[in-house]
Design goal:
heterodimer; A: 342 residues; Rossmann fold; 2 domains; 8-stranded mixed sheet; 3-stranded antiparallel sheet; 11 helices; B: 625 residues; alpha/beta; 20 helices; globular; binds iron/sulfur cluster
Chain lengths: 342, 625
């Protein structure tokens, strides 16, 4: 049973702990922490009802800085712990905080399964394209050729695209934002929170020590407007400093292309309107890469279905309707019994 | 009570029945022949005839091994009688072999002079060759040491079911019921439970139900109408002296499931059972999945690690998380169990042990995960270890595991094995209302709360579950400060916390009843110390030895870690200590290192349980030395 405390509006500060934050100065995690504390205050979250669950890595320190319940678990397994928490108490509001190594490498299996099961929780993946806590090895999202202590000649592997993987695993909510976007990020987090089912949010996070400016090819102030497209349901996919660039389906191809409104006869009506319930579109947005395309940010996909807990609840009700009741003595006497007379 | 079946309409002709104290029957056939069903039906009917009994299902790892091969043989052994039965029997009195392969594989278990019932219809050239027979054993002298009853069971089954419009294949599937009917007649068993069971099982296919019942009756009638060859007779086995009360048969998997349900219910908790399919542990998952009405949540996780982690998550949130597996799966869970030790959360880990290492022999039994349970994690990571000794004992041990896990905020590993899990025995059903069990108290008071503030007596930390206002806190696998619960890398603090975790587990021993002696004196020449499923053979061996005037005692451990407080003192009262185990000496090592005594091991790792005479022989050798 969750006891509801008297409703006094909490401020972002009320969600901060007295623990000294131990991330490197200038780490993108600070900004995400701030956005999260803001978000919880804005949505009127209750501290006692909120649980942060993490695995291992820099991002996994997150729960210690939130004045809610928190469980810092083991590498890659946070989604499994979170699933257990929701099985025990579906009323809790659970946020999983993970990183690219934690979620996509050692925990790749659990990520896939929590998404397809659609457990009602928020899963935030801080992507810094590097292993921070273990001192800078390349990660599963590092771009090919990344030089690191374990890849002095540059990494050979191709990176995984987190949002494409989430869509492939059957996620019903997939969104993306950037640590420094202090207006955009809380809005995305609120949407994630409002969604029933697993909400997957990739947050590009700058690791100032081991991978500084790895996202500068689209987040750098001078180019961001032309390199990022903020997607919004029902709105045309327009971007650019002058709001005159847009995405459309390449004529005769199942592919997106960028066009400029006013050039080559392109008008605003030619621009694709974002439909967040369209999985094929979400897949194409997820697949856009620099430098040819802008990076899509915002809610790429949101198409709710009943959550795993909804299914469990239905089964409970069904079982109780058909069951023999809660009498434990009856349980032990199911099937054949016989009596030996004294 | 009459031992002659009451289902028969006509009066039984003058069949001579020989009175026996007990008998061992083994049903053997192809994995597809339904030998496990046949055996469990015979078990049910035998229990209803008020015999004491013990069973040993033994089946291959393959689901449907190629028909007629020796590695595809599935068997079910039952020992039943008017005496106390504690093992599935050393030597088989009657072997039912549905094909040549079954005869080939199981013959060594048959005693000299034992009875063989074979389906001679299945002894054709092809199946004989597949089984590796050079000539037909039914035609040469190789079975001269036994009595052989040959029936063309295939043909007689086809004849019995010919009116039900079944295909040849379906009709032949009724062979096992024909055979069961015959064996029922041999031992004067009542067919009614099987008739009821068939009607229920084939409720949607009444033709199949009728055909199977017809086959059952035909097999029975063969004995009844005295068409039986050369001086064969049936047997009578008297009722065992059994304590009065309500009984049922129970397998270890059932008793364990119900124990977990009863324990958590009495504790006032939801049971959240998280598991990944693995032989031979899956039966628990299946049983518990059908108990949602008792607030049981089951979760089939994506892997063993996720199963352990989700169980721990459930405990963190106020359920009792239980995970279950077999040795290889437990190895995968080790890191998560370490977290539960560090975060001091209740957790039950059930290990249905099987023969190893690695994949080993999944359907064969072994007790070789004791060291894994006690020591198998990184760093100093103590927890409690319990072991069940028999199918019905699983019930009590499961309740004890719930008690220790919740009272001491610790993981508990509960060891059972494939043999206990699948075997059945009669069980005097307990009255749940008479079980005394404390309800769990969650921490709710924020005043002076600190997540790792220990109870001065048990050293357990409070169970403060998310959802409780004012108790918001953060825990994890990093070392915690003894006084504040915050992360701490302080050297003195780590020493203190490590010692506190060990002391907490040690104190469980203060809370246990003293170890008793199962059979024999509390002091003497020889103590035979066992744990787990070796209970039956050790107990019978000690009883035989004592009958013959030998000074031997049986001590059987339920609590393996911490060991009972008085165990060292108890063992010191014996000149010799013998530890029979289905491994190469794990408890022996534990006892030797813990008590510095010269305990001797008796080791068997063949995938089969001990025979009584193996233990008896080792004990005699010990006593003579
Ligand atoms: S190593 Fe990188 S990700 Fe980790 S705290 Fe430092 S800056 Fe942040």
């Amino acid at each position: 049973m969750n006891v509801v405390s008297p409703i006094t509006k909490l401020t972002p500060k009320d969600f901060a702990t007295d623990q000294e934050v131990r991330w490197c100065p200038g780490c993108g995690d600070y900004a995400i922490l701030k956005a999260m504390q803001r978000t919880l205050a804005d949505i009127g979250a209750r501290r006692e009802n909120t649980v942060f669950v993490s695995g291992i890595g820099c991002a996994a320190r997150f729960p210690y800085y939130m004045a809610t319940y928190g469980f810092h678990t083991i590498h890659g397994r946070a989604p499994a712990f979170a699933t257990g928490i929701k099985l025990a108490n579906p009323g809790l509001d659970v946020w999983v905080v993970s990183g690219d190594g934690d979620a996509l490498s050692i925990g790749g299996n659990h990520l896939m399964h929590v998404l397809r099961r659609n457990v009602n929780l928020q899963l935030l993946m801080f992507n810094n394209e590097i292993y921070g806590l273990t001192k800078g090895q390349y990660s599963p999202t590092s771009r090919a050729g990344t030089r690191s202590p374990s890849t002095p000649w540059g990494s050979i592997e191709n990176p995984v695209c987190a949002v494409a993987l989430a869509l492939g695993a059957g996620a019903r909510f997939v969104a993306r934002s950037v640590d420094s976007l202090q207006k955009h990020l809380p809005e995305v987090l609120k949407r994630a929170h409002a969604h029933n089912g697993t909400s997957f949010v990739e947050i590009f996070q700058n690791c100032i020590v081991f991978n500084n400016d790895v996202f500068a090819d689209f987040t750098a102030r001078e180019i961001a407007d032309d390199a990022e497209v903020f997607v919004e349901h029902g709105k045309p996919l327009i971007f650019g400093k002058n709001k005159n660039r847009g995405l459309r389906i390449k004529p005769g191809k199942l592919a997106l292309e960028t066009v400029t409104i006013g050039e080559n006869g392109v008008t605003e009506t030619d621009i694709l309107v974002h439909d967040e319930t369209n999985r094929a579109l979400a897949g194409m947005l997820a697949g856009m890469e620099r430098p040819t395309m802008p990076i899509a940010l915002g809610v790429l996909y949101c198409d709710p279905t009943p959550s795993y807990e909804d299914g469990v609840k239905d089964h409970f009700e069904e079982a109780k309707k058909h069951g023999t009741g809660k009498d434990l003595n009856k349980l032990l006497r199911r099937g054949h019994t016989w009596t030996v007379a004294g | 009570m009459s031992t002659v079946t009451s289902v028969a309409q006509r009066p039984t002709p003058t069949v001579r029945r020989q009175e026996l104290g007990s008998a061992v029957v083994r049903f053997a056939g192809d994995s597809g022949d339904g030998m496990q069903f046949t055996g469990s039906q015979f078990t049910q009917a035998t229990a209803l005839a008020h015999n004491d009994l013990a069973t040993f299902p033994d089946f291959p790892a393959e689901i449907r091994a190629p028909a007629g091969t020796t590695f595809g043989v599935s068997s079910f052994q039952i020992n039943f009688g008017a005496d106390v039965i504690k093992t599935s029997g050393d030597a088989v009195d009657m072997l039912v072999a549905m094909n040549p392969a079954a005869l080939k594989v199981e013959l060594p278990a048959l005693r000299n002079g034992g009875l063989i019932v074979v389906d001679k219809g299945s002894f054709n050239e092809r199946s004989l060759r597949k089984a590796g027979f050079k000539s037909n054993p039914l035609g040469d002298s190789s079975l001269d040491a036994y009595r052989v009853l040959e029936f063309d069971i295939s043909a007689m089954t086809l004849e019995a079911v010919k009116d039900f419009g079944l295909s040849q294949k379906e009709a032949l599937r009724c062979k096992n019921m024909w055979t069961l009917g015959f064996v029922y007649w041999m031992y004067g068993r009542n067919r009614q439970t099987t008739v009821d069971w068939l009607n229920q099982k084939f409720a949607r296919h009444p033709q199949l139900a009728k055909a199977n019942i017809a086959a059952l009756n035909a097999g029975h009638a063969l004995g009844e109408t005295a068409e039986i060859p050369h001086g064969l007779h049936g047997f009578t086995i008297g009722e065992a002296k059994i304590a009065p009360g309500e009984y049922r048969t129970v397998t270890g998997a059932e008793a364990l499931s119900w124990g977990l349900v009863v324990g958590t219910k009495l504790a006032g908790l939801q049971l959240t059972f998280c598991s990944y399919p693995i032989t031979p542990a899956s039966a628990l998952l299946h049983t518990l999945s059908n108990l949602m009405e008792y607030d049981v949540v089951t979760f089939q996780a994506e892997d063993e690690i996720a199963a352990a982690c989700s169980a721990i998550g459930a405990s963190y949130a106020g359920s009792l998380g239980v995970t279950s597996s077999s040795g290889p799966g437990i190895a995968l869970k080790a890191e998560a169990i370490g977290l539960a030790i560090s975060a001091e959360l209740p957790l039950i880990v059930v290990n249905s042990q099987r023969a190893g290492p690695s994949t080993g022999m999944p359907t064969k039994t072994e007790q070789s995960d004791l060291h894994q349970a006690v020591f198998g994690r990184n760093a100093d990571s103590p927890l409690a270890v319990l072991a069940a000794r028999s199918p019905s004992d699983c019930f009590e041990v499961a309740i004890e595991a719930v008690r220790i896990a919740t009272k001491y905020m610790t993981p508990v590993i509960l060891l059972t094995d494939g043999y206990i899990g699948n075997a059945a025995e009669p069980w005097l059903i307990p009255d749940v209302d008479s079980i005394r069990f404390p309800r769990v108290q969650f921490r709710t008071d924020p005043a002076g709360f600190q997540p790792f503030l220990r109870d001065p007596k048990t050293l357990a930390r409070p169970w403060a579950v998310p959802g409780t206002p004012g108790l918001e806190h953060r825990i994890g696998g990093l070392e915690k400060d003894y006084d504040t619960g915050h992360i701490s890398y302080d050297p003195i603090n780590h020493q203190r916390m490590t010692e506190a975790r060990a002391e907490k587990i040690r104190r469980i021993a203060d809370d246990l009843p003293p170890q008793t002696v199962e059979d024999g004196a509390e002091k003497g020449r020889l103590a035979i110390v066992g744990w787990g499923s070796t209970y039956g053979p050790i107990n019978r061996a000690v009883s035989e030895l004592r009958k013959k005037g030998q000074d031997a005692s049986h001590i059987h451990l339920r609590h393996l870690w911490p060991l009972p407080k008085n165990l060292g003192e108890l063992l010191a009262g014996f000149d010799k200590v013998l530890v029979p185990e289905l491994n190469t000496g794990q408890l022996t090592t534990l006892i030797r290192s813990r008590y510095l005594i010269d305990a001797q091991g008796l080791h068997k790792v063949s995938g089969q349980p001990f025979k009584i005479n193996e233990i008896e022989a080792a004990a005699r050798e010990c006593l003579e030395k």
